[in-house]
Structures are given as structure tokens and as C-alpha cells.
Amino acid sequence: MRVAFSACLLGDPVRYDGGAKPTPEVLELARRVEAVRFCPECAAGLPVPRPPAERVGGRVVCSDGIDVTEAFARGAQASADRIVRSGVSLVVLKAKSPSCGLNVIYDGTYSGKLVSGRGVLAERLEKEGICMVCEDTVKACKPSVEHPVAIVLGTGLGHLKN
Ligand code: SF4
After folding, report:
1. Residue 79, ligand 1, Cβ within 6 A
2. I need a surface site. Which of 6, 55, 136, 156 has the fewest CB within 10 A?
């Protein structure tokens, strides 16, 4: 089974601050599947490190006031195209990101407040009908008992157990 992951969840140092955000649960899931990694902001050609960005209405704006809406859209499209071409069964997304966030994102005020919403890539993937889960869903599952892939696809654990 092929599953795509936000690259920072797999330990790739691609975040705005040059860091990564791997978790044991996501790494365990990645070991059990054929993992495909993506980072839409890197796909857009944005540097690492880079200023943090948040969605502000229909725009994406960096903390320094630079509008990066077009770059985020370009990177999201490139990553979405790659994910679709890869034929993955599921995408695991980094929480709260202006690109990868699935359920909540920062509200655009740089105050740490969250609002309901999706990142730019998650919006694209939703239009493509791709199955998506947030990293928090993976963290909440015990892989050997209620594997997120099995939950999403409605299948038994079967081949994912070992
Ligand atoms: Fe991680 Fe997505 Fe941000 Fe890239 S764009 S660093 S994959 S959350």
C-alpha cells in the first residue's frame, strides 16, 4: 500500500524554521507502507529556512508581510499532481500548516489562534477526492489495533500487521 506523507513528518528538515516534526506513530506507519514524501512549499522553490506564513482570507502572507499566495498555489499544484500520479491510497498531513493543515489552521494574525480551515494543498487534494488524515489521527491510533489506513479504507488490518 502506498501512502503519501508531509515530508516534515518523516523527519525531513523542510519546515520554515529548518526543522522537522517526526512522531513515532507516523514513522511507524511509514515503515508499514510504501511511503511517498512531499513538501509543497519546497516544491514551490521557497527556501529553507523561510519566514513563517499564514492564510489570510484567500491569500497567504508571511510574517514579514510578503504575499506568497502564488508560490503556495504553485507548490500545492505540483505536489497534488505528484500525489495523484503516485496512486496513493491515503495522504497523511501535518497539522495546522498553511499548506498541509487539514482541519484547523492559524488564523492569519500570528497570535497562535486557530480557526477551522484547510491548507492550500489540502484544499487541492480534497478537490481530487484523495483520502486524507491529519497526523493527529495517526497519533491517536494504536497501529497494531486500529490502523489509520484500515480505518480510512474500511479494510481489515491484514497485510499491515507486520
Ligand atoms: Fe511540512 Fe507541509 Fe510545511 Fe512542507 S509545507 S514543511 S510538508 S507542513
Report:
1. no
2. 156
